[in-house]
Amino acid sequence: MDDAFTARLDLASRALGGGVVHANDEFFAAADHLVLPEPPTFSPRTFDHKGQVYDGWETRRRRTPGSDVAIVRLGAPGVIHGVDVDTSFFVGNFPPFASLDGLAVDGHQVPPDAAWTALVPKSPLNGDSRNLFAVSDRRRFTHVRLTIFPDGGVARLRVHGEAIPDPALLPAEFDVAAVTAGATVTGCSNMFFGRPHQMLMPGLARHMGDGWETARRREDGNEWAEIELAAPTEVTFVDLDTSHFKGNAPGAAALRGTDGSGDWFDILPRVPLSPDTPHRFPVRPESPASRVRLDIYPDGGMARLRIIGRPDRAFLTEKFRRHTEESRRP
């Protein structure tokens, strides 16, 4: 099946603020493991007072009819393109079937009588595998419900899609290059050591592997990444953060923008960069930008890219309305 959706953002990730808000059973292993950003691990013959330790969610053996359930609050509400029910290292104890439902609510609470929408019907799972399921519903969701039949263990739940924030919860100026705001990487020259979407993640980079890093360039030219911003924006501030990149920081960088007409203009002309340093620049480009291109010279790593500005509120509102209107109909 088509697994292209796995390149998209994991909306459920703890790195974005996702969390498990309910699990009916987590006797052997806590459901919180489902949303950890790190790949699952396994240490054989590692036992605690309940048995072999698993890096995942594992319920007890069910002796009555039924199923087990975990509800996840998405760290970035949005449109879901596909899910990965990862049963890595669960061999004799994985669930034979699973389903996934979605929910869109205002606020933070899941009402007891919530009307869930089926996204993935009850489907067979393989053990010690990534089980991929495409999702065709293009409405915006805030929560998902994973049901396993009848019981067992799941290492990770990845909910891949595009973030669509509620404009009412956004300030007048914010980071329009943030993945949580709906920004996406649309092109990149090289991502040998680190994918460019990592420099758009929330918070400070934890280490050198938590950013965009290219291979060593051996020919003329330079590396680049292009980003579609959350909305057309009057950019006022740029942050180029090379934290943790010491012997491999770019020597210089430049940022250009386009309003979609095909013409590019300078947002930040080429500037020298220092290793392991946040570089902050007030800017006044000639027009709003809907897409930007970051050029680094000649290669290297960037921990974070922040682009602060005043976005087109009408654009944000229309995008939100388009993906929520249907889901709010009775």
What is this structure's SSE topology?
Elements: E1 9-10, E2 19-23, E3 47-48, E4 51-52, E5 57-58, E6 68-86, E7 97-103, E8 117-124, E9 130-134, E10 140-149, E11 153-154, E12 156-163, E13 174-175, E14 184-188, E15 212-213, E16 223-241, E17 252-258, E18 264-272, E19 278-282, E20 289-297, E21 301-302, E22 304-311, H1 313-324
Antiparallel strand pairs: 1-12, 2-6, 3-4, 5-11, 6-9, 6-10, 6-12, 7-8, 7-10, 13-22, 14-16, 15-21, 16-19, 16-20, 16-22, 17-18, 17-20
Unreliable residue runs: none
Provide the number of structural domains. Answer: 2
Give the ordered list of helices and strands: EEEEEEEEEEEEEEEEEEEEEEH
Helical proportion, percent range: under 10%
Approximate strand percentage: 35-45%
Q: Count of DSSP E strands?
A: 22
The main pleated sheet reads as: 8 strands, antiparallel
Q: What is the 3D shape?
A: globular
**Count of DSSP-assigned helices:** 1
Compact description:
This protein is mainly beta.
Describe what this molecule looks like in 3D.
The chain has 330 residues and is mainly beta. It folds into two domains: 4-163, Galactose-binding domain-like (Jelly Rolls, Sandwich), CATH 2.60.120; 169-314, Sandwich (Jelly Rolls), CATH 2.60.120. It contains one helix and 22 strands. The strands form five sheets. Strands 1, 2, 6, 7, 8, 9, 10 and 12 form an eight-stranded antiparallel beta sheet that branches. β17 (252-258) and β18 (264-272) form a beta hairpin. It starts with 8 loop residues before the first strand and ends in a 6-residue tail after the last helix. 42% of the residues are buried.
